[in-house]
Amino acid sequence: MVDSPVHVIVGASLAGAKAAEELRTAGFAGRILLIGEDTERPYERPPLSKGYLLGADPRDKAYVHEPDWYDTFGVELLLGVRATGLDRAAHTVLLSGRDPVRYDKLLLATGSRVRRLDVPGADLPGVRYLRTLPDADALLADLPTARRVVVVGAGWIGLEAAAAARHHGADVTVVEVDRAPLRRILGDDVAALFATLHRAHGVAFRFDVGVRGFRADGEGRLAAVVLTDGTELPADLAVVGVGITPNTELASAAGLTVDNGIAVDAGLRTSDPDIYAAGDVAALAHPLLGRRIRVEHWSNALNGGKAAARAMLGEPVTYDRVPYFFTDQYDLGMEYAGWVEPGGYDHVVFRGDATIGDGAPPQFLAFWVSAGRVLAGMNVNVWDVQNDIQALVRAGWAGREVDLARLADPSVPLHALIP
Question: Binning pLDDT at 50, 70 and 90, where does residue 1 land?
Fold first, then answer.
């Protein structure tokens, strides 16, 4: 009698949950184990810094599936279980406190963890991070009564946390070591727009400075954030958002190739033909961009998990999706598609009115171009244009140029520009 095939997914994340769902959708009838160190069933992360943190959305909205979905579809969900090792020769995953499990195919969707500040006072109760659902629970409990909030880091999480803190009525200061928010991602021109947006909503910025430590009051509660220039910012709550680190330890210990993430080919296969990786932890040899990239956003976890599942079933997979992310801050909703490294473009072409602070929400598009090629595009409060933006990005990365004057002209339909 031949044993039923077993597909194991390490990481009860969005990528892992969507992979399990796709395996069943594709007709896989074997055993599926979804293993997660977290005690929560798989959830999505965008609500944690958006609707849930604002108090606008219920906690349950973050979950990928209803509680009974896993039993209904025969997915064995092992929560609070840590994978401690891989025996590639024996095709087994070693688990803390449990017997090893055998796999025919294995998906690593181990995600990432926050980078923590190693400074005095970093363990004070008022110093928060935002990565997990319990993190969001704790922060949501703090925000309604916080009077002075200091956000460390002006990336996406930091700016969304700043917007949420202002929504709850706190005075907010954002501390950033760079000279503008999101500058390494968006460049100086668009970074300046986000700085203007937050200032228009009462947020103060301290640029070109880091954090030396956190000072407590006489009762052991957070009282101030101490900056590297000696300044002390009074605070009863600090939110730290200084980036994330991919959880590659399991892969590295097993001898898989690691390169700023678990290295995978265009089919999301690692250096072991029976092991795949998806989501934040996967460093993809991107066939469109011609380079290895690691994308830390919701869309990549959602679609990468599905693609990896198809590859695990032996289907030909070329994962070449255009990197995509979105944010909501105050009255600004934004989508961004493409990939641009710092200094990797000539200039930004704007279409529409990018004025911020005149009372009306801004509505514009922005395109990062190099030698006439669109490498990335962003729509701000302009909707139903993502397909056209992504088509322009695909064309740009394929070497095709676009008329930049027409690109900037709102009267010219975007689809008319697609080569």
Answer: very low
Tens of pLDDT, residue by residue over 131-184, are 999 999 999 999 999 999 999 999 999 999 999 999 999 999 999 999 999 999
CATH of region 331-417, choose from 3.40.1000.20, 1.10.10.10, 3.30.390.30, 3.90.1170.50: 3.30.390.30
DSSP bridge partners of 333? 328
Catalogue the E-assigned strands of 199-356: 204-207, 211-216, 222-227, 232-234, 237-240, 244-246, 262-264, 275-277, 282-286, 291-293, 324-329, 332-338, 347-353
Fold of 6-113+245-312: FAD/NAD(P)-binding domain (3.50.50)
State the Cα–Cα distance between residues 298 and 43, nearest whole angstrom.
11
* C-beta neighbour count of 151 within 10 angstroms: 32
pLDDT for 80-111, tens place per residue?
A: 999 999 999 999 999 999 999 999 999 999 99
Give residue limits of the domains in the chain.
6-113+245-312, 116-240, 331-417
